[in-house]
Automatic annotation (TrEMBL):
Spans annotated as Disordered: 124-146
Coiled coil ranges: 45-106
Protein name: Rx N-terminal domain-containing protein
Keywords associated with the record: Coiled coil
Length: 146
């Protein structure tokens, strides 16, 4: 069950970051804030909404400056936040799935992507990359795998 919740948290973080960069951000932000702030009253929802606004500003600035590391850190922070929320209330998983499906339907594009990668068979002699969108060039520095 933990792996399922971790996968859901990761998908949710990817959707949140994608939503931050879309025209549907305004409508999605308040719904995400209500989900993450539930049980804590209006003050908790307002606090989460401000965190989402702040993250969105930071993400846009990071993308504009080409700082993919910062953009990745923002997604990681929201993945951790989603995992905590799901650990504290595993029953919220179904609510989160519905919310993500609704946001995906409203934006008219697929933000919910399921990716399964398995790396096995010993030592990998090179980089392994998982992602949906890569911008700019990717450079690896390390020993020659030959």
């Amino acid at each position: 069950m933990e792996a399922e919740l971790a996968g859901l948290a990761s998908s949710a973080a990817t959707a949140v970051v994608g939503l931050m960069l879309s025209e549907a951000w305004e409508q999605g932000r308040s719904r995400l804030a209500r989900f993450l702030g539930r049980g804590g009253g209006e003050a908790a929802v307002a606090e989460v909404e401000e965190e989402l606004r702040s993250s969105q500003r930071e993400l846009v600035a990071a993308r504009d400056s080409g700082d993919e590391e910062e953009a990745g850190d923002i997604q990681l922070a929201w993945r951790q936040r989603m995992r905590r929320a799901l650990r504290e209330d595993p029953e919220a998983a179904e609510e989160l799935r519905r919310l993500l499906a609704e946001l995906e339907a409203e934006t008219g594009k697929g933000t919910g992507v399921t990716v399964t990668n398995t790396i096995s068979g010993g030592v990998q002699h090179g980089p392994v990359i998982q992602g949906q969108s890569f911008h700019g060039s990717i450079t690896f520095h390390g020993p020659d795998p030959r």
